[in-house]
Specification:
By secondary structure, the protein is α/β, with parallel strands linked by helices. The protein contains ten helices and seven strands. The strands form two sheets. It has a four-stranded parallel sheet with strand order 5-4-6-7, with helices on both faces. Strand 1, helix 1 and strand 2 form a beta-alpha-beta unit. Helix 5 packs across helix 10.
């Protein structure tokens, strides 16, 4: 196999660093499963400082967020990336602004997740993620385009999840009390009519596992990395 057969993957990471490690690991493992031997993907990574991003998001400064990511995408393109993905759900609120200012194609995590949810014939999902992902329209719009209803946690639980993501999940230092409350929140969504749970934050799978939930769990990182691998490999090898 020629090295030019496989497209070069660009990743905008650091948002946060534990989730970026997960992306790198899952993409490499998936490519190796498909191609075998010692094959691995060609990846170029732009790892950003998450703290300014957190502050810009809280201040609703979308142009600062989009500008930082777009600049990273242009550096990825200069490094030979054929397309790129952002290793974070929340900043996809500004994905349209990013795409307007870069030529490099983006694999949008919200879009591929909504498409996968539709493929599974789920009509109502419980959305678990950052407060911004749960409260703003960018995820709901993608699900609505697929005819899927979204339910979210109560305001106090959304605030707790946001605080936990920033203070614990983004550093990988997670207490048992936080794990327990995340699971309670997940079960509450199922009781509210959700047929499946969408883990719409790249850190949430660190605390909620599929085996802990008596319903289908759609991990956006799994869906996103699978889409990234499909774009990179095309028809080569077997399924992801």
């Amino acid at each position: 196999m020629s090295e030019h057969t496989v497209l070069k993957i660009g990743l905008v990471g650091g948002l946060s660093f534990p989730s970026t490690i997960t992306y790198y690991d899952r993409i490499n493992r998936a490519v190796n499963r498909r191609l075998g031997k010692a094959h691995s993907p060609r990846i170029v990574l732009e790892s950003l400082d998450f703290q300014p991003m957190v502050e810009w998001i809280a201040a609703r400064d979308g142009h600062a967020v989009a500008g930082e990511i777009a600049a990273a995408a242009r550096r990825l393109e200069q490094s030979g990336a054929d397309f790129f993905a952002i290793c974070c759900n929340t900043v996809h609120e500004y994905a349209d602004l990013v795409e307007e200012s870069v030529a490099l194609p983006l694999i949008n995590i919200c879009r591929v997740t909504a498409e996968e949810t539709s493929r599974r014939r789920v009509s109502t999902v419980g959305l678990l993620g950052s407060a911004f992902s749960m409260e703003q329209a960018f995820y709901r719009d993608e699900f609505a385009a697929q005819g899927i209803k979204v339910v979210t946690p109560e305001p106090d639980d959304r605030a707790f999840m946001q605080d936990s993501i920033e203070r614990e999940l983004c550093t990988g230092d997670i207490s048992q009390a936080t794990r327990d409350r995340f699971l309670r929140i997940a079960h509450d969504l199922l009781a509210s009519g959700a047929e499946a749970l969408v883990l719409a934050c790249t850190e949430v799978p660190l605390v909620i596992r599929a085996e802990d939930i008596p319903a289908p769990v759609i991990d956006t990182v799994d869906v996103h990395t699978a889409a990234i691998v499909r774009r990179a490999l095309g028809p080569l090898g077997g399924g992801v």
